[in-house]
Structure prediction request, 339 residues.
Amino acid sequence: MKIGVLTGGGDCPGLNPAIRGITLRAEDFSDEVVGILDGWKGLLEKETMPISLSDVDEIMRMGGTILGTSRTNPYKKEGGAEICKKNMAELGLDALIAIGGEDTLGVAAKLHKDFGLPVVGVPKTMDNDLSCTDYTFGFDTSVTCAIDALERLRDTGRSHRRVMVLEVMGRHAGWVALFTAIGGGADWVLIPEIEPDLDKMCEHLIKVKKRKGYAMVVVSEGIKLSHKKKEEVDEFGHMILQKRGVGQHIAEEIEKMTKIETRVAVIGHIQRGGPPTLFDRILGVRVGVFAVDLVHSKRFGKMAALSGNNIIEADLFDATGRLKLVDKSWYDMALTLFK
Ligand code: F6P
Prediction:
């Protein structure tokens, strides 16, 4: 078979291990693997590169994606979906493996439904907010990076007796913030799923400052703020959150309400780069291998998913219909740890 592979949406560590898993498993079937460059953009423009065994020899440790990525949405371009269908045929692709999050896999699901295109998904997102899979690769690496940042901030916060605010990514879901706060032993966390209660938080921070001399707060970039500023959106209609300054706003509020000197750090895209952790490497190759098996068993419109410690098949529509958000029991668990 001739199998196309693309990576779409925000990059994250684990994409290259997934490409490696796909390429090595495809070799077992003597398949030809073709990389589509820059996500759906590459399919619209027929920009490709061959992927051979030597291309994936050394990519396990590499963050990002050797194929490039973009947030291009073919359904937002005039006749874009039809062009994808035509180009798949012209490229002679028997199947396409789309590696992405809710947006990229949402397009894959639609192309399968609208035209019966032979598409299979591989889930990725550092936000960990994709349904039908327990974890996505990228998440573990980014939280590991965010915890490292939190620990560095703790050193300076302790020395200066300040409140330190760390803003992390997480557009709709607070998984990154929550796990960073729990894993890094923070004193409070604000996530998009829970309305921020600044009075309660500040009261707690004053108490913590009295006991420890400093306090640590983790804020997800996606928390809802009441200001009415017009915000820029991407092709999938999502706000470009890095320009919002949520962490800065929260730090100013904390300083005003507690009278404790407060500083903020925004790690932004740093948490999305770097070598994948062991967890993300193993998950990446496993879902990559499984996706090729889905192709050979003609399970199109499906994706590889993690369930417990098994890789299983999930439906692309079920996975992209609604996001996997942090539920109240997880948040309550974090609150238990704030003393
Ligand atoms: O991929 C998801 C994500 O990491 C979000 O958490 C974040 O808001 C967004 O990507 C940033 O996207 P971009 O790289 O396009 O600015």
Notes: The pocket of 6-O-phosphono-beta-D-fructofuranose is lined by residues 9-10, 71, 125-127, 169-171, 221, 240-242, 272 (CB under 6 Å). The first strand starts at residue 2 and ends at 7. The mean pLDDT is 96. The domain at 140-272 is CATH 3.40.50.460 (Rossmann fold).
